[in-house]
Design a protein that fits this description.
heterodimer, A: alpha+beta, Butyryl-Coa Dehydrogenase, subunit A, domain 1, Butyryl-CoA Dehydrogenase, subunit A, domain 3, 2 domains, three-stranded antiparallel β-sheet, 11 helices, 56% helix, B: Butyryl-Coa Dehydrogenase, subunit A, domain 1, Butyryl-CoA Dehydrogenase, subunit A, domain 2, 3 domains, binds flavin-adenine dinucleotide, AcylCo_DH/oxidase_C (chain A), oxidoreductase (chain A), AcylCoA_DH/oxidase_NM_dom_sf (chain A), Acyl-CoA/acyl-ACP dehydrogenase (chain A), AcylCo_DH-like_C (chain A)
Chain lengths: 336, 379
């Protein structure tokens, strides 16, 4: 219970810092290739990058579930700074016995595109269970973007790593994929809340036929579906994070996959509803909505798409005997 | 949007042991269940089975021991419900009493009412049905016209209820009826009361209504000058609307709102175990099921804490109904009906016909979404 209070407080802090230091203009700047240095400084100043690092290694020692509300809060602001990446990368490095460096830090599975590599002082690359930390100077970076126009860069290693380590079994050989899936699921929950709030506000202010369009049941019913999907993603991300805390990241692949499928499907449904409700206005560059919907579409594909995960979850179920005993055997009882 | 908050809950200590106990019990019973029985889920009425469940202490689990209850938590009760539904056990004879009539009597009934009804629900001797809908009052429930008028020594009941599930097999109904006219210019939600109606009383006529499957599940029940004793009133006279709506969080959030088709998912997985091409479609269903289970468990935790998660319940019901309703069609997309093993085909055939009811019973999809829209500030 105290853990949840900490989680809520951190999310509050991040929400406030983001509100002070970022707005839609920040998202526009990020999408045109700039790095929001002031916003990063403000958020980095909270010392949250080491949130998941154990206390005896200088971190806050929080669990994955504790971190979900703050990553949701980042998603709610369109994730203008790569703080979720820094949090996950620090956790990954610490697990491999490497002290996380100060400053901008990101990560990816070897071969995958790296979020914000071009702006990072350090990049952690995980090749199976081997984690290597590189300074920017040891990498050749080819800039790329996703549908959200967020930096998603291709990197080639040209120099030696600063440090190298091996992940313990509990983290497994897919840790970078699983961490990416988990943080994107939580960010999707946040971005859905932001898009829903924009859609509700529009529905209450835009008038047609003499009344706010939100008075029309067709609009109400669609936004209700959006709200339900949005809640489902929050619950799914939190439940996946809880499984990772209880059983280790590697043994929570099933739950993380289920959460990512739920998030990806919900993102598509929510984005479509938001655009239907905002109609032509929501298509304009000027309106904030597309910054969220384009991120929703992009994040579906990062850390494994619905297609990728549903094939794996389906196989796990096919090999797991009767489904209900299989599902319930993964429950972890609370302490007496 | 605080009404849409969910906090996760872990299963309670001893969960796995309780699950194993329920599973062993089901294994003893299930040889008698045809695929159609399983497909009926909580719409399957089997008094003998209910008595056996009661004997194990799994009805009224959360009620005080003084009334035959088990003083267990909501989360323990949830384990029993999940196991029963996942297996397609015919729990209909105690479902309503355990889920809402008993809890209502416990919360708002007099001491005499608790002592009279609760122990008999627990043993399976009293089965309850829900008397809300009327021929002219469905979603607009407060427009109902069945009335109970004060007379010497009690109340005189006149009117008609409809779609009453298992009315012809049950012993008691809790009926929402009008006991006074709404105040001039006031809301029609005032002047309603909840009444305990003995379905064997003179003046009660029960007419089963055959459904599209060809079965008699629900009924039309007519009341002609039915005499109710003074203590037929549950709770406060005139407060029936608030009382009935406070039952809804119990009625709408449970695993019965997403597991109604579950036996078909199990049979499909069995039939498709070696079909690699079916994995992605099965995986999507499993992911959805997993998410719904976490949401439903969260709501049970809120009920345990004494909160009134009526909006979360509407939200979980809507998502859950969508899931359980779409399942037969999704499975049909993975295997032609003629190629399905017999059990799977019979589950599929029955469920295909009955799934439209999922988003009607307990309040329609449109009404659930209206509740969520109100929470969003749209109405
Ligand atoms: C299998 C089954 C078992 C049932 N068991 C019971 C029982 O045991 N006891 C009991 O009392 N009742 C029972 N019901 C009745 C159930 O509660 C009603 O069917 C339900 O409340 C809808 O009422 P209706 O059928 O009269 O439909 P209506 O209210 O006439 O609705 C028809 C359509 O109009 C839509 N609609 C109505 N009002 C609105 C609105 N304001 N906005 C948007 N759309 C609207 C509805 O969503 C629906 O799609 C059962 C129903 C079924 C199918």
């Amino acid at each position: 219970m105290t853990g949840m209070t900490i989680a809520a407080e951190l999310a509050e802090q991040v929400t406030r810092a983001l509100a002070d230091a970022t707005d839609v203009a920040t998202l526009r700047a990020v999408e045109s290739g700039a790095f929001p240095a002031e916003a990063w400084a403000a958020l980095d100043g909270l010392g949250l990058a080491a949130a998941l690092v154990a206390e005896d290694h200088g971190g806050a020692g929080l669990g994955f579930q504790d971190a979900m509300p703050l990553i949701e809060a980042l998603g709610r602001a369109g994730a203008p700074v790569p703080l979720a990446e820094a949090i996950a990368a620090s956790a990954l490095l610490a697990a491999a016995g490497i002290t996380p460096p100060e400053g901008t830090l990101t990560f990816a599975a070897a071969g995958a595109r790296v979020p914000c590599a071009r702006h990072a002082l350090h990049v952690a690359l995980a090749d199976g269970a081997t984690v290597a930390l590189y300074a920017a100077g040891a990498l050749r970076i080819e800039p790329g973007t996703n549908i959200g126009r967020e930096p998603r860069d291709t990197v080639a290693v040209t120099g030696a790593p600063v440090a190298q380590g091996t992940l313990p079994n509990a983290w497994g050989s897919e840790a970078a994929l699983l961490l990416t899936a988990l943080i994107r699921a939580a960010q999707i929950a946040g971005a859905m809340q932001a898009a829903l709030a924009l859609a509700v506000e529009h529905a209450n202010t835009r008038k047609q036929f003499g009344r706010p369009i939100g008075r029309f049941q067709a609009i109400q019913q669609q936004l209700a579906v959006f709200a339900a999907e949005s809640s489902a993603v929050s619950v799914a991300a939190a439940a996946a994070a809880r499984a990772a805390d209880q059983r280790g990241l590697a043994n929570a692949a099933f739950e993380i996959g289920c959460a990512k499928i739920t998030a990806g499907e919900a993102a598509a449904r929510g984005a479509a509803i938001a655009h239907q409700v905002l109609a032509a206005m929501g298509i304009t560059e000027e309106h904030a909505l597309h910054h969220y919907t384009r991120r929703l579409w992009a994040w579906r594909d990062e850390g494994g798409s619905e297609r990728f995960w549903s094939a794996r979850i389906g196989q796990a179920a096919q090999q797991g005997g009767a489904l209900w005993p299989f599902l319930t055997s993964r429950d972890e009882e609370s302490a007496a | 949007m605080t009404g849409l908050r969910f906090d996760l809950r872990d299963p309670p200590p001893g969960a796995a042991a309780l699950r194993a106990e329920v599973r062993a019990f089901i294994t003893e019973q299930e040889s008698r269940w045809t695929p159609e029985v399983r497909a009926r889920s909580w719409m399957g009425f089997d008094r003998d089975f209910t008595r056996a469940v009661g004997a194990r202490g799994w009805i009224g689990m959360c009620w005080p021991k003084a009334y035959g209850g088990g003083e267990r938590s909501f989360l323990e009760r949830l384990i029993v419900l999940e196991e029963m539904l996942a297996a397609g056990a015919p729990v209909g004879a105690h479902w309503i009493g355990d889920r809402q009539s008993g809890p209502l009597i416990l919360r708002l009934g007099t001491e005499a009412q608790r002592a009279k009804f609760l122990p008999k629900i627990v043993t399976g001797d009293y089965a309850f049905c829900i008397g809300l809908s009327e021929p002219d009052s469905g979603s607009d429930l407060a427009s109902l016209r069945t009335r109970a008028d004060r007379v010497e020594g009690g109340w005189k009941l006149n009117g008609r209820k409809i779609w009453t599930t298992f009315g012809h097999l049950c012993d008691w109904m809790i009926a929402l009826v009008r006991t006074s006219a709404p105040p001039e210019g006031g809301s029609k939600h005032q002047g309603l009361s909840q009444m305990l109606v003995d379905l064997k009383a003179p003046g009660v006529t029960i007419r089963p209504i055959r459904d599209l499957v060809g079965e008699e599940g629900f009924n039309e029940i007519t009341f002609d000058d039915v005499m109710l004793p003074d203590d037929a009133l549950v709770g406060q006279e005139g407060a029936g609307w608030a009382q009935a709506t406070s039952e809804l969080a119990f009625e709408r959030s449970g695993p019965d709102r997403y597991l109604s088709s579950h036996p078909l998912l199990e049979a499909s997985l069995d039939a498709l175990r070696n079909d690699a091409s079916a994995a992605p479609a099965l995986g999507r269903q499993v992911a959805r099921l997993w998410t719904l289970r976490a949401m439903s468990t969260a709501v049970a935790g809120m009920l345990q804490d004494g909160a009134d998660p009526v909006r979360q319940a509407a939200l979980v019901k809507d998502l859950g109904n969508d899931f359980e309703q779409a399942l037969p069609h999704a499975m049909r997309g993975l295997m032609d009906v003629d190629a399905m093993p017999e059990t799977m085909r019979r589950l599929h055939d029955y469920l295909t016909q009955i799934t439209p009811t999922f988003s009607l019973r307990g309040g329609t999809r449109e009404i659930m979404r209206g509740i969520i829209a109100r929470e969003l500030g749209l109405r």
